[in-house]
Design brief:
Low-confidence stretches: none
Helix content: 25-40%
Strand content: 15-25%
Order of helices and strands: HEEH
Strand order of the largest sheet: 1-2
Number of helices: 2
Largest sheet: 2 strands, antiparallel
Structural class: alpha+beta
Number of domains: 1
Distance between the termini: 21 Å
Length: about 60
């Protein structure tokens, strides 16, 4: 919930699971890095990528 904004923060747990946790993605390993590649047709790709970007921007607590 920390990474979500505006209306996505008010989604019920069922809706959140349906839209975010059932996204189609592949884990792609190239050289020494791993990338999470989402399907282009998924309607909530921008919500997921924005949430991940906000989580990466948080300061490291440790």
């Amino acid at each position: 919930m920390l990474a979500l904004t505006s209306e996505t923060r008010r989604w019920e747990p069922r809706r959140l699971r349906l839209r975010l946790l059932s996204a189609t993605a592949q884990i792609v390993t190239t050289s020494r890095r791993r990338h999470l590649r989402f399907a282009r047709h998924w309607p909530w790709n921008d919500v997921i990528t924005n949430a991940l970007a906000r989580l990466e921007a948080l300061p490291n607590p440790g």
